[in-house]
Design a protein that fits this description.
Layout (H helix, E strand, L loop, with lengths): L3 H13 L1 H19 L3 H20 L12 H16 L4 E2 L11 H16 L5 E6 L5 E5 L2
Antiparallel strand pairs: 1-3, 2-3
Amino acid sequence: MTSEAQARASKKYDETNIEATRHRKGLSGARSFIKNRSTLNDLDSLRALIDERDTELVAAGATREVGSKYSNEILTLVDKYVREIEQCKGEVELNKLIGFKELDDGVKRTLGKAVKERAKLASGSIELAGKNTSNHLLYRARN
């Protein structure tokens, strides 16, 4: 249960940070819709809108802030595994790289997300190559 003081502080923050609040609420609503109410047709439509918006933002010079939400430990591991992927011939799964299986499950998930984000950067040295028969993502060095 939220204390009265916490409720007042939250209300004050929302009132003084209107754009951040709108952004947070809009994102929350979008995630909730996707997770709880969307149909396959809805998801197809949303993918098209997302791809269109992504293209617009990139054309306007926007960049993805991969590093801002991850710890230094994760970013160090991302750099390590990106270098390993760059040196591999052909396609490779993250969990086949040295030391990956020994990591904590939470670290593996976070690392997987961060490497995937890095691969999506147009300026990056690696890219997504597809999925294998186990539905694991495959990466390869960019040519």
